Amino acid sequence: MIKFFKGFLINVQFFTALPFPYELPMDKEHLRKAVQTFPLLGLVQGLIYSSLFYLFNEFTPFSHVAVAFMLWLTTIFLTGGIHLDGWMDASDAYFSYQNREKRLEIMKDPRTGAFGVLSLVVLLSCRFLFIYEGTLNVEYVTYIFIIGIPFLSKSVMGVLLLTVQSAKNEGLGSLFQSAAKPRVLWVYPLYIVIFLIISLLSEKSSFLYAVLVIAAAACVFIFRRKAMKWFGGITGDVVGASVEGTELILWMTVWLLHYFVMV
């Protein structure tokens, strides 16, 4: 249990901007536990997002657009932009329309090109639209959606990391792949089922969360194929881009549910 908790703290250090100055062991056993706790990190992120949204929405005089903007900012600052960096690097590489080897070289370049900047603007603009309109009529299930989105995106991250070959033998992605095998992912479905059961016990309309699970499963299928086709496998940047892409698709799903189901 201690190793499990330390694995979770490794994720806090790597994937959030939360201050945690202590040195943690980086051996294979602890990295394996870190992979198993990816979804739990997403769950904590979701709880922070949902709690802040609730507090601003219920106890402040701010307009809905202001509350949505604060939630949008929190999704950026809590992660420290680590996945957004991967999104920009992967976008620069993809839109270069070069071969795989050249794309991998472009992702290693610390400079950001025009395509990376443009793709970031599009991503964040779309996310704000989906957050704003997807939370216009706040219901109990809205808070479940907000919690579930980073929970599922981090689950997708773990699945892609361990089921797609590495495109290069260096970097953060390779570090985790060398420590864990796909069999450690057995706990992910358990997390999702428990989350769904708890949600259903608290609110019957939470069955809509299953739609997000299906969308996340589709993301795994799509991003696995694209990672192999475009980059020859997974890198840390590709994983980061996949996390951002998954969250965008999940927010879009909430937005569509808002218009066509939650009326």
Automatic annotation (TrEMBL):
What is the species of this protein? Bacillus salipaludis
Q: Which InterPro entries match?
A: CobS (IPR003805)
Please name the gene that encodes this protein: cobS
Functional pathway: Cofactor biosynthesis; adenosylcobalamin biosynthesis; adenosylcobalamin from cob(II)yrinate a,c-diamide: step 7/7
In what way does this protein cross or attach to the membrane?
Answer: Multi-pass membrane protein
Report the enzyme's class at the first EC level.
Answer: transferase
- In which broad location class does this protein mainly occur, judging by the first location in its UniProt entry? membrane
Named from the GO MF annotations, one term is: adenosylcobinamide-GDP ribazoletransferase activity
Among Pfam families, the record links this protein to: CobS
Q: Which family does it belong to?
A: Belongs to the CobS family.
Q: Kindly state which reaction or reactions the protein catalyses.
A: alpha-ribazole + adenosylcob(III)inamide-GDP = adenosylcob(III)alamin + GMP + H(+); alpha-ribazole 5'-phosphate + adenosylcob(III)inamide-GDP = adenosylcob(III)alamin 5'-phosphate + GMP + H(+)
Taxonomic placement = Bacteria, Bacillati, Bacillota, Bacilli, Bacillales
Role according to the record? Joins adenosylcobinamide-GDP and alpha-ribazole to generate adenosylcobalamin (Ado-cobalamin). Also synthesizes adenosylcobalamin 5'-phosphate from adenosylcobinamide-GDP and alpha-ribazole 5'-phosphate.
Where is the protein situated, by its record's location annotation? Cell membrane
EC number(s) given by UniProt: 2.7.8.26
Q: Which cofactor does it need?
A: Mg(2+)
Q: Which parts pass through the membrane?
A: 38-56, 62-84, 112-131, 143-164, 184-201, 207-223
Q: What is this protein called?
A: Adenosylcobinamide-GDP ribazoletransferase
- Alphabetically ordered keywords of this record: Cell membrane, Cobalamin biosynthesis, Magnesium, Membrane, Transferase, Transmembrane, Transmembrane helix
